[in-house]
Amino acid sequence: MHRKLTITSLAVTLALSFSGAGISGTREDQLDKYARTAKASNPAFSGFSAARGKVLHNQAFSGGKPDTPSCTSCHGNDTRGAGRNPAGKAIDPMALSASPSRYTDPTKVEKWFKRNCNEVLGRECTPLEKGDWLSFMISQ
Hints:
Elements (H helix, E strand, L loop, with lengths): L1 H17 L1 H22 L8 H9 L13 H4 L7 E2 L5 E2 L14 H15 L6 H13 L1
Antiparallel strand pairs: 1-2
Helix pairs in contact: 1-2, 2-6, 3-6
């Protein structure tokens, strides 16, 4: 009986640790950090918008690299589908519903924001842009 209970407890623990509920705190912490920074630079900041994040994701920019004028250049129009970088390497879907383990490592999130924002926008993304975009991907 004790062994069965232990195995059941282990299974529940593992399921929670791999589910969205088990890892959502990390994403919430990232959004909280972006919100604090956005509020510090703009006291009128009132929260992130998935709708603004969608516009950012789909908008074409002229400041970055010519072959990557928008996020959709590599990630595609469907956030739940795979993308391809300019070299042809496959990119996992960006939508949280299609890639549940995404956006759980703050260091990786920042690494990709830095690289992709510079390539697409020609500059680093603001905390507002990061929070809006991340909110959009979490909602997908």
